[in-house]
Amino acid sequence: MTPIAFVQAIVQAYERRSSSPADALAQAQIAPSALLDPASRITAWQMERISGTAMQQLDDEALGWFSRRLPWGSYGMLARASLSAPNLGVALKRWCRHHGLITDDITLKLSVTGDTAQLAITEHRDMGNLREFCLVSVLRNILGVACWLIDSRIPLLGAQFPFPLPAHGEVYGVLFSGPTAFNAAPAGIRFDARYLALPLRRDERAMQQMLQRALPLTVLPYRRDRLLVQRVRQTLAAHPAQTHSADTLAALLNVSPRTLHRQLKEEGASLQALKDEVRRARALELLLRTHRPIKQVAEAAGFQNEKSFMRAFRSWTGQSPAQFRRSGPSLA
Asked: Between 183 and 330, where is the model more confident?
């Protein structure tokens, strides 16, 4: 799903150095004629291959974005500088600070507002036709490394870019999970701030292995989500009337139903068990702390009708909701 526009940007980097991209295109199996079709797309493997070849041939991991080259190994140096951090938040702050040491054309900043973390880019010079490729790549790079450091997918709450919706705008849903806004400055991504507290799970040996083939981190979404169980609980509690089916819950979490079930299984959990856990806690609280009728309690706990609630409640407690309420502590 990578748009040919990004390959065209790499070709421009070659042209600026008066070099030919023919060998890089051939190694990535990209026909020169594809460059003439704006609707063309390439695979993740092809993007990894042409990017890696171009970075080494041009000795520039920024592929012409900045006013000075970033020699081969620059982003590996940033990754190593972040490796000893106690958690992801510290690691990302180090990445942002050290990125400013290798180029002053942009500034990366991590900020937290409430429960939301944001990584934003401030631009300090006009990057011309390479602007989109630069902003997308810088954000994908830092997101990919962040996921690798904590061995977890970091689902995005949203992404935004300061340029109009491009002709290939549909690929942004693949590159960045969650809604994407255009003509919105500064460029950045938003995600749940709880990921910042997760400890790093990598060591120097893992770093050496990763750096031998780091580009897949920037072009492929990370699979595992270590906070998925917490996010599912939170979403079920916040949207009881909208999470009856796996399809609607998955949509709220910006994943496919198949991915939702698979990742929960990998974490040793099931959607039905999490639903029961959240609904049971909500029902018990309402029965003991309010005078709401049983029907309203059932609805507030996320059940579609009172009958199904009564059946589930009896399986949880061995009592009917009315019996439980009568046997519980008196209402204040």
From this structure: 183
For residue 99, give the nearest of 128, 126, 120 by alpha carbon. 120
pTM comes to 0.74
What residues form DSSP beta bridges with 181?
160
**CA pseudo-torsion sign 69, 174, 214, 54:** negative
CB 42 within 8 A of CB 7: yes
Q: What is the pLDDT of residues 57-74, one digit of tens each?
A: 999 999 999 999 999 999
Per-residue exposure over 82-116, b if at least 16 CB sit within 10 Å of its own CB, e if not: beebeebbebbbbbbbbbeebbebbbbbbeeeeee
Residue ranges per domain, the chain? 2-219, 227-332
- Give the other-Cβ count within 10 Å of 268's Cβ: 7
DSSP 7-73: HHHHHHHHHHTT---HHHHHHTT--GGGGG-TT-EE-HHHHHHHHHHHHHHHT-TTTT-SSS---TT
What does residue 181 show for φ and ψ, rounded to 5 degrees? -110, 145
In this structure, what token pair is assigned to residue 223?
């699979």
Q: For the domain with range 227-332, which CATH number is right: 1.10.10.60, 1.10.10.10, 3.30.450.20, 1.10.10.350?
A: 1.10.10.60
Helix (H) or strand (E) segment spanning residue 106: strand 106-113
